[in-house]
């Protein structure tokens, strides 16, 4: 029992359950899942569906944060990826061609990969602080996406493309399946290979890692590449869902939510030990929060306030100084250091 | 020297959980003298300074400044009372100008507005008083470390000119810079400033100090006038010759025997790195333990790091099995079968956040690359074997290494390298700060490894340990490799090594 | 050696020529920005009719007065090595609170100090959390950003027009230097802020402590400087100046809207970086930030004159400039080592 309580995902999981349960008071059918036309419908499915882009971005962000870095450019990469795919599909003579859509998807992901390499090289080869290195692409990337789309919202009517974000397979939303597959593949790749432990070593102690013979440069670039590809897929899901590329709306402020999801999931911003499951849980939690405010009927804007509170509480609970302050006050009200000048 | 002491510490005792850092230490500092505080690593020098400046409280004892008992809450209070400290790493802001670094926090002002011209004028005058003629408006970073050091001293004496503590100020200075610093110190001495000087360089201490206090293992060995103590006597007092607890544990001191000569594994020729270690020639053969002896700061670690590619040499060549190689990174060195266990176990050795298992397989995994993970069964087998052979406690492969004691962390580190099956194992202070039992186990392990054909480069501040284990002892002094002593058949005794440390010829 | 009392005079003259010959490394980034600005202006004048009109240049100030104020606050924070992500949200909150209260009939004389106080308090709160609980500035100000943006959305999700006479007067007031040559009152306020900020940074103990913390916070502490107090103060200043920037923006827009100033934190950071302030702290000038804001403003102006180039080029050009200046900073700081 105490082992469960002490598990780092215990409290986020409790919050998630509480959030979901609280919905029932306002929407009695919240937990009801129905099957209509071979599709599952219900609020829980909505929670999962709306969590998909964020879960992907948070997954990539987890790896970057584990190396001790941060990636602010994920939102812009989402915008670029969606813009490229929609532009390509828009130019197809037959927007319904599956081959064409696959090509568009491939092109979008290759460009995302390039963005990731750019970030990784700036951080690990040129040695720029991650927050600043990725700021460049964060600013310029959205401009590039707008340049590609000519500042317009590009609408596409391509049934195959629509499947990615809005389709169903085996009664389950395709986007959820995609995320599940990517997460499973990532977990398999990272934990079955030695990537996970090497990245954790680099993030936790760069010096010790170097002296253990780990070449951190390649690992760091890979982490940024992975984050960018995840963001690219998220961008595809987003633009497929709305059947258009909106360079302003795609991934707007998602980097902040993703960082929040990672922190909720128990990965420290300083790097080292990471938890993919935790980040996915964090993403679902944030999505549940959005849905909850909607069902409860409070203005959606309060989610921002709630997020602020969550960030503050989480950070304070991670802050050693805060814990020490609380701890000291509770135990010994008056510990004054032996700091008297002349006796 | 008849002046009454400006600073008098008596019967100082300071304990940390499980360790007595200082036990009944007396120390007296008189105006107008340079007083050196001597001792090896762990002798208690820095603890004494920290106790004096109020970084630590004391458990027992008495500190008097000008005869008045004092107890400071921190370095700032000490500074206000007239005791300033200048550290090895310059604690100034290199981005600010020289003048600002001297005056920041107490700038001359008029109506709250800083008077820059006044500040520059005064700092130029102050520095000129130390025979330094600088552009005080230039950023401090444009000047060498030596100059920065002297700016720190200028700040310190301008704030309070009574007691000046110089904590290893010369570590990163070259000879002419050191001489310049000494000029400043002598000048201050004439002005009646009491200077407490800490340095690992014996020649420097003899060049500038009037008297010295020697500490060993937290106890006072004695206070001496520099002129009355030879370097040999000093080294003996610092290192000590009494039998360690460890030797009493071992029934019979091991005598190193010479086997049939083996092929050299690594040979260096004129290998060196500016500011770290002067060019040296060294040959290490298979089955041989080579000991590195020398005082702290003599270049022991720097030499070891060059052989592992942790730092890049500026000059010289390395041959492995007779073939010239460039050890550009640790990884390259590892591929040549070299392993290195750092003296900074926590920051450069183990990764505290990771488990025992992960730490043990880390180096092997790194050399295999991320795509070829060590199969779990193989990991379990390796980890279990080494937990057992080295007696790592707790014997749980999944516990985070930061929760282990120092000795067990060291064993994990050794296990990490042993599973890579190196041909040359470099161990830097593997027995420092660990308990006696673990120490004996690690020593025994090194001997077994060498008997099995591995070459071992053994770095330690403890002379007895080096003498007992090494076939060959390389003596370092002031960043030079000064002498090589053949220890096969136990031919070398401590006196001989200490003599080399104290007076070995530096080219 | 015995002549301790030797006059310092000759020494100083020995060092001086050395100083004159060398370009101060701290000035390189600012000079680069200045050169860039001159180049951009030159290109504008060469390519477009009427670009050389004085008013074109003055309009850059008029259109960016609020950014100038916000970026000035950001400069204080970045000089200590920190960052403030909350500025845009605080600007938005300020416009929303001001508009709401004014529409409810509150007098301008009360609303103005109140909104400034709110911003200052938010900044103070973030500073306290950063200093006392050792929370990363990035995270603490991110929370502040969520909080401020959330509060403004909570108050009103729609754009609120402002009809208060004082506000409209401030919006329409023009200080004229001649026919068709004018600035707004906001420009005057922004310039006063910049001058006051520059004075504080260069001539007060507080200002120098800001630089010292950015250079080496541990050393600053050992030298007895009030590190904690100063660090809290820079976030408070940034909060205050964000609120002031919000007031200027509400003069400019005559509305309060929770989506005002989206991404302004990025513009402010970009202006500071392009202005040559080193992001790790300790080096740079408020004057550089002014140049950085002008560069951003001039890019907009050129795009407007060009007509065929679209607004997203701003982002791309800003991104390229950021890259160039960050690499330049790397080179400058690396050589300094």
From the structure above, extract its key features.
heterotrimer; A: 343 residues; mainly alpha; two-stranded antiparallel ribbon; 71% helix; disordered C terminus; B: 507 residues; alpha/beta; six-stranded mixed sheet; 18 helices; globular
How would you characterize the overall build of this protein?
The complex is a heterotrimer of chains A (343), B (507) and C (337). By secondary structure, chain A is mainly alpha-helical. Chain A has helices at residues 2-6, 10-24, 43-66, 74-91, 98-126, 130-149, 159-166, 174-192, 195-204, 206-211, 216-242, 254-264, 276-296, 302-318, 320-331, and strands at residues 34-36, 39-41, 154-155, 168-169, 172-173, 244-245. Chain A is built from 15 helices and 6 strands. A two-stranded antiparallel sheet of chain A has the order 1-2. In chain A, strands 3-6 form a two-stranded antiparallel sheet. A two-stranded antiparallel sheet of chain A has the order 4-5. In chain A, a hairpin with a 2-residue loop joins strand 1 (34-36) and strand 2. The radius of gyration of chain A is 22 Å and the shape is globular. The termini of chain A are far apart. Chain B is 36% helix and 25% strand. In chain B, helix 5 (145-159) packs parallel to helix 6, helix 8 (231-239) crosses helix 18 (494-503) and helix 13 (356-368) packs parallel to helix 15 (406-418). Residues 242-253 of chain B have low confidence and may be disordered. Helices cover 74% and strands 4% of the residues of chain C. Chain C has helices at residues 9-21, 28-47, 54-79, 87-103, 108-132, 137-155, 165-172, 185-203, 205-215, 217-222, 227-253, 264-274, 286-306, 312-336; strands at 160-161, 174-178, 181-184, 255-256. In chain C, strands 1-4 form a two-stranded antiparallel ribbon. A two-stranded antiparallel sheet of chain C has the order 2-3. In chain C, helix 2 (28-47) runs parallel beside helix 13 (286-306) and helix 13 runs antiparallel to helix 14. The longest helix of chain C is centred in the last third of the chain and has 27 residues, at 227-253. Mean pLDDT of chain C is 85; it is low at 1-21. The interface between A and B is medium-sized, with 29 and 41 residues.
């Amino acid at each position: 029992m105490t082992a469960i309580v002490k598990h780092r995902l215990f409290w986020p999981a409790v919050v998630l359950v509480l959030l979901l349960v609280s919905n029932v008071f306002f929407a009695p059918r919240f937990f009801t899942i129905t099957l209509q036309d071979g599709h599952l419908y219900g609020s829980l499915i909505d929670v999962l569906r709306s969590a998909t882009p964020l879960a992907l971005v948070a997954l990539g962000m987890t790896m970057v944060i584990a190396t001790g870095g941060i990636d602010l450019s994920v939102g812009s990469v989402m915008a670029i990826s969606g813009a490229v795919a929609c532009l390509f599909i828009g130019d197809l003579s037959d927007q319904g061609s599956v081959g064409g859509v696959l090509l568009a998807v491939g092109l979008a992901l290759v460009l995302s990969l390039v963005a990731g390499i750019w970030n990784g090289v700036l951080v690990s080869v040129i040695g720029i602080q991650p927050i600043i290195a990725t700021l460049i692409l964060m600013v310029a990337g959205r401009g590039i996406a707008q340049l590609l789309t000519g500042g317009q919202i590009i609408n596409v009517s391509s049934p195959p493309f629509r499947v990615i974000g809005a389709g169903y397979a085996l009664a389950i939303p395709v986007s959820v399946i995609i995320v599940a597959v990517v997460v499973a593949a990532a977990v398999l790749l990272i934990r079955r290979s030695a990537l996970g432990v090497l990245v954790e070593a680099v993030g936790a102690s760069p010096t010790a890692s170097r002296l253990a013979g780990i070449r951190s440069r390649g690992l760091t670039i890979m982490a940024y590449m992975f984050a960018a590809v995840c963001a690219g897929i998220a961008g595809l899901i987003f633009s497929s869902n709305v059947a258009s590329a909106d360079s302003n709306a795609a991934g707007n402020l998602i980097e902040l939510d993703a960082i929040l999801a990672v922190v909720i999931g128990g990965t420290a911003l300083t790097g080292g030990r990471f938890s993919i499951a935790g980040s996915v849980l964090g993403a679902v939690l944030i999505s549940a929060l959005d849905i909850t405010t909607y069902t409860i009927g409070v203005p959606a804007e309060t989610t921002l306030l709630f997020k602020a509170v969550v960030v503050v509480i989480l950070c304070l609970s991670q802050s050693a100084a805060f814990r020490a302050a609380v701890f000291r006050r509770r135990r010994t009200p008056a510990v004054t250091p032996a700091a008297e000048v002349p006796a | 020297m008849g002046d009454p002491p400006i600073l008098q510490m008596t019967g100082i005792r300071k304990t940390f959980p499980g360790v007595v850092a200082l036990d009944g230490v007396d120390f007296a500092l008189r105006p107008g003298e340079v007083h050196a505080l001597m001792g090896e690593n762990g002798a208690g020098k820095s603890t004494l300074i920290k106790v004096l400046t109020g970084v630590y409280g004391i458990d027992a004892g008495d500190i008097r400044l000008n005869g008045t008992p004092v107890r400071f809450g921190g370095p700032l209070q000490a500074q206000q009372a007239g005791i300033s400290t200048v550290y090895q790493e310059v604690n100034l802001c290199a981005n600010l100008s020289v003048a600002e670094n001297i005056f920041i926090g107490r700038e001359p002002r008029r109506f709250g507005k800083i008077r820059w011209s006044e500040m520059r004028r005064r700092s130029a005058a102050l520095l000129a008083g130390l025979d330094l003629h600088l552009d005080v408006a230039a950023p401090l970073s444009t000047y060498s470390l030596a100059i920065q050091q002297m700016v720190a001293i200028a700040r310190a004496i301008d704030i309070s000119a009574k007691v000046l503590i110089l904590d290893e100020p010369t570590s990163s200075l070259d000879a002419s810079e050191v001489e310049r610093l000494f000029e400043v110190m002598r000048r201050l001495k004439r002005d009646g400033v009491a200077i407490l000087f800490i340095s690992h360089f014996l020649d420097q201490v003899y060049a500038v100090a009037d008297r010295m206090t020697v500490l060993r293992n937290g106890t006072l060995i004695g206070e001496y006038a520099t002129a009355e103590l030879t370097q040999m006597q000093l080294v003996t007092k610092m290192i000590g010759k009494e039998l360690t607890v460890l030797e009493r544990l071992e029934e019979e001191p091991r005598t190193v025997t010479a086997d049939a000569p083996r092929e050299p594994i690594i040979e260096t020729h004129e290998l060196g790195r500016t500011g770290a270690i002067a060019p040296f020639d060294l040959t290490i053969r298979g089955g041989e333990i080579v000991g590195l002896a020398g005082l702290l700061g003599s270049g022991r670690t720097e030499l070891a790091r060059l052989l592992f590619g942790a730092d890049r040499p500026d000059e010289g060549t390395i041959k492995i099995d007779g073939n010239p190689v460039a050890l550009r990174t640790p990884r390259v060195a590892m591929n040549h079968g070299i392993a290195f266990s750092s003296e900074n176990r926590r920051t450069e050795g183990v990764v505290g956040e990771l488990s025992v298992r992960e730490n043990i397989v880390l180096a092997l995994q790194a050399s295999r690359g991320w795509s070829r993970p060590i199969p779990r069964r193989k990991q379990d087998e390796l980890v279990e074997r080494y937990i057992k052979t080295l007696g790592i406690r707790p014997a749980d492969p999944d516990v985070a290494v930061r929760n282990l004691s120092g000795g067990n962390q060291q064993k994990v580190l050794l296990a990490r390298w042993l599973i890579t099956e190196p041909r040359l194992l470099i161990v830097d202070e593997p027995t420092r700060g660990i308990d006696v039992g673990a120490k004996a186990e690690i020593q025994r392990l090194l001997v077994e490894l060498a008997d099995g054909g591995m070459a071992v480069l053994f770095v330690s501040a403890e002379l007895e340990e080096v003498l007992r284990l090494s076939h060959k002892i390389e003596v370092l002094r002031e960043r030079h490799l000064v002498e090589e002593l053949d220890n096969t058949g136990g031919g070398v005794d401590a006196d001989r090594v200490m003599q080399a440390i104290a007076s070995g010829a530096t080219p | 050696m015995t002549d301790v009392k030797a006059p310092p005079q000759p020494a100083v003259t020995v060092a001086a020529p050395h100083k004159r010959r060398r370009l101060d490394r701290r000035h390189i980034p600012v000079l680069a920005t200045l050169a860039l600005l001159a180049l951009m202006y030159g290109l504008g004048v060469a390519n477009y009719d009427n670009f050389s009109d004085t008013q074109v240049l003055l309009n850059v100030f008029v259109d960016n007065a609020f950014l100038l104020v916000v970026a000035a606050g950001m400069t204080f924070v970045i000089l200590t090595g920190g960052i403030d992500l909350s500025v845009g949200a605080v600007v938005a909150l300020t416009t929303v609170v001001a508009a709401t209260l004014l529409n409810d009939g509150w007098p301008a004389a009360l609303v103005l100090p109140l909104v400034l106080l709110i911003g200052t308090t938010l900044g103070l709160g973030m500073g306290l959390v950063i200093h006392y609980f050792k929370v990363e500035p990035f995270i603490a100000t991110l929370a502040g950003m969520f909080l401020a943006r959330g509060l403004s959305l909570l108050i009103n999700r729609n754009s609120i027009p402002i009809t208060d006479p004082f506000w409209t007067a401030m919006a329409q007031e023009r200080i004229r230097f001649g026919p068709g040559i004018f600035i707004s009152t906001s420009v005057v306020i922004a310039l006063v802020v910049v001058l006051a900020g520059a004075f504080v940074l260069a001539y007060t103990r507080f200002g120098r402590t800001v630089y010292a913390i950015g250079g080496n916070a541990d050393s600053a502490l050992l030298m007895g400087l009030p590190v904690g107090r100063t660090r809290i103060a820079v976030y408070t200043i940034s909060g205050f100046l964000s609120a002031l920037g919000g007031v200027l923006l509400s003069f400019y827009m005559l509305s309060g809207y929770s989506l005002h100033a989206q991404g302004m934190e990025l513009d402010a950071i970009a202006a500071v970086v392009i202005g040559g302030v080193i992001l790790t702290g300790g080096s740079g000038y408020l004057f550089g930030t002014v140049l950085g804001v002008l560069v951003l403003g001039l890019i907009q102006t050129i795009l407007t004159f060009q007509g065929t180039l679209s607004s997203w080029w701003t982002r791309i050009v800003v991104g390229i400039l950021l890259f160039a200046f960050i690499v330049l900073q790397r080179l400058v700081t690396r050589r300094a080592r």
